[in-house]
């Protein structure tokens, strides 16, 4: 399983971020070809106390590398990237991982 992981730092306006993420961004992500699952986690605390380093994590799951590669080349994914940069450019870190 290949995952595209988006880690979000706490946005300046959490309400506006949440509104855009759920009403605009998530529907775009769900149109990405070969997407097997989208899992979103909101962080509530740090085990060391205080504010967590990240506000939220989204994991987009793909069956294998070929399906991931095809998805990343798609017009739908380009729309996702364009939207992401419009509302989260300063807060998002993207990573690619593989379950072993």
Question: Can you give a write-up of this model?
Answer:
The structure is a single chain. This protein is an alpha+beta fold and 100 residues long. Helices cover 38% and strands 29% of the residues. It has 3 helices and 4 strands, in the order E-H-E-E-H-H-E. It has helices at 14-30, 65-72, 75-87, and strands at residues 2-8, 35-42, 56-62, 92-98. The protein has a 4-stranded antiparallel sheet with strand order 2-3-1-4.
Helicity, as a percent range: 25-40%
In angstroms, what is the radius of gyration?
A: 14 Å
Gap from first CA to last CA:
8 Å
As residue ranges, the low-confidence spans are none
Overall geometry: globular
Estimated share of beta-strand residues? 25-35%
Structural class computed from helices and strand pairing: alpha+beta
Number of H/I helices? 3
Main sheet attributes: strand count, strand direction, barrel closure:
4 strands, antiparallel
Averaged pLDDT? 97
Report the strand count. 4
Instruction: Provide the succession of SSEs.
Output: EHEEHHE
Strand order of the largest sheet: 2-3-1-4
Search tags:
100 residues; alpha+beta; four-stranded antiparallel β-sheet; 4 strands; 38% helix; globular
Short description:
The chain is α+β, with helices and mostly antiparallel strands and 100 residues long.
Topology (SSEs and partners):
Blueprint: E1 2-8, H1 14-30, E2 35-42, E3 56-62, H2 65-72, H3 75-87, E4 92-98
Antiparallel strand pairs: 1-3, 1-4, 2-3
Helix pairs in contact: 1-3
């Amino acid at each position: 399983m290949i995952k595209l992981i988006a880690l979000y730092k706490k946005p300046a306006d959490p309400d506006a971020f949440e509104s855009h993420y759920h009403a605009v961004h998530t529907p775009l992500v769900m149109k990405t070809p070969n997407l097997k699952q989208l899992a979103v986690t909101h962080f509530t605390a740090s085990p060391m106390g205080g504010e967590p380093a990240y506000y939220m994590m989204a994991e987009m799951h793909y069956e294998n590398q070929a399906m991931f590669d095809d998805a990343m080349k798609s017009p739908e994914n380009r729309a996702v990237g364009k939207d992401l940069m419009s509302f989260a450019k300063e807060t998002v870190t993207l990573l690619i991982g593989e379950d072993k």
